[in-house]
Amino acid sequence: MITLKNIEKVYQTKTIETVALHNVNLVVPKGEFVSIMGPSGCGKSTLLNIMGLLDAPTNGVVEIAGTPIQKYKDGELAKIRNHKIGFVFQSYHLINDLSVLDNVELPLLYRSSMSAAERRTRALTALEKVGLSARTKHFPSQLSGGQRQRVAIARALIGQPEIILADEPTGNLDSVMGEEIMNILLTLNREDGTTIVMVTHDENMANKTERLIRFFDGQQVADSRVFDFQKV
Amino acid sequence: MLKNYLKIAWKVLLRRKFFTFISLFGISFTLMVLMVATSLFDHTFGPQMPERDTDRLLFVNMIREQLKEGYNNSGPPSYYFLDRHVRTLKTPEQVSINSMPFQVNSYINNRKLALDIKYTDREFWDILNFNFVEGSAFTQQDVKGASRVAVINENTREQYFGNTEAVGKYIVVDQVKYKVVGVVENVPVLRVQSYADVWVPITLKSQDFNRPGLRGTYFATIKATTPGDVPKIKEEYAAMMQEVERQQPQKETKLFSFPDTFLESIARTFLGSGKEPGVGILYGILTGLAFLFMLLPTINLVNINISRIMERSSEIGVRKAFGATSATIIGQFIIENIFLTLLGGLLGFIFSAAVLWLINDSGIIIYADLGLNLRVFAFGLLLCLVFGLISGVFPAYKMSRLHAVEALKGGSK
Description:
The complex is a heterodimer of chains A (232) and B (413).
Chain A (H helix, E strand, L loop, with lengths): L1 E11 L4 E12 L4 E5 L6 H8 L7 E6 L2 E2 L5 H11 E4 L11 H10 L6 H14 L15 H13 L5 E5 L7 H18 L2 E5 L3 H4 L4 E6 L2 E7 L7
Parallel strand pairs in A: 3-8, 3-9, 6-7, 7-8
Antiparallel strand pairs in A: 1-2, 1-4, 4-5, 9-10
Helix pairs in contact in A: 3-4, 3-5, 4-5, 5-6
Chain B lengths: L1 H14 L1 H29 L11 E4 L2 E4 L5 E4 L3 H8 L7 E6 L2 E7 L2 E10 L2 H5 L4 E4 L4 H5 L4 E5 H8 L8 E4 L2 E9 L13 E4 L16 E6 L6 H17 L7 E3 L5 H9 L8 H32 L2 H9 L4 H37 L11 H27 L3 H7 L3
């Protein structure tokens, strides 16, 4: 599903050159739930941004579903992000001025062929999936952290993407809420076959996924199957 | 999508009340000043009662003699000149000769009343479209017979007779008694070619008719059959002027007189050089002034917009992450800005209406009836859109270039 070949990311300022990723080679097959762990500043988020086509590598090739995308332009990348990828962020990134329903509908606004009625139906279904059907008219500021993250997940899955990229989705939540979010992601992976790549600091969460990749200083240092992952 | 953008725009306006106030105040105040200026311009130069066919009307209100020694004499033409040389032009449909307005005093019940009186021929009433509220204009017979009849405006009727009918009654103006034959709506003072309080037959001033010389106290109002005839009239007029110049007893005297639209005559007075009336320069100056006047609030708005949009970098990041292209983001911010400017425009219209009402009511401009007509409205709308685009495009472009990852980092929740 996602293939990274010899990925290198270097941040260059006038005086300093910082290597964020070095020689990363990674294949995430369709339907896999992968977690990425590592200390702060080891390049996890940069890797996720490159996978999500939000950032371009300095060197190397990114392939999504077998297609290399390095020559794609802004419009084509935006289309892939819109149709194939959903994002979940640690700090939710909901638009405070929009209601829950409007926030969830957002990715579909960029699909010109879709009617307003269909957007609404799909948003309601997505909210039902994350257990928030009763909160459609609320605004983000009226929700708890866990509820906000559930809205963010509904927004990520409304476009029926093949891949969900989650950057520390439980990082701002207490353990109970973290569990809830994790369960939603696991269900998505198991029932809908969505490929999920999750960056986390939490060993417990990582252990619930199928595969765990560890990073250190911009390099991949371990890649292992999680023993007790139950694929249904 | 549009609904979503407008929803956001509205929320953003409500969220940042101070910014919103500054933005809206800037837009609405600037628009108000421009709208009031446009309305004044339109009121002065546009087709308004009684000069409705502005594209077919020409006025002669000045003649300049440049003598050999370099002296210049200028002023309104004489009846003698207009009657001999202008009334006899072949191309116009009709030519009227009328005096400039003179201020005279009248007394009503020992109360002094200053009135402007104008002497006109019968053609004056045919060429111009006065709105009669009572009676009609004086006839050709009245003019021929130098009858002491008068057309008065509504204000004069009110001064003399209160709210009762005036036709058939008598007024004494400057110690002369006139019978009122018609009452017209007040003509604003800015329509200097037609304006007066009292209009009486020109033959009552027949002592002026045979006074030779080029300069006097008269105007000519010329009506072309079609707008296309206007240049032909100007040509014929120029040829006539050459002939008059040739006939001057003092050789090498140069004469300048032109049949102008009202706008041309104003432009010629202030900016004209020789034969060119300088309307282009006048428009250039007015446009330049309007542009400068708009520049400051536009720059201000650009600044406010940049900081307003900066606060929303997280939103830009999210939109990009979920499939918005840079072009879509630009579109969104431009739509938001046009929404803001249209809102400011709406307020500007309300303020303009209030200010125009105040001007009309205060009597600063005699008989002014300034209003926001459709042309002024369209101009205002155009200004709003130009405003919205100018102040929205740059910030939107700047923000759309923001890298998605940076944008997401820049925003909090």
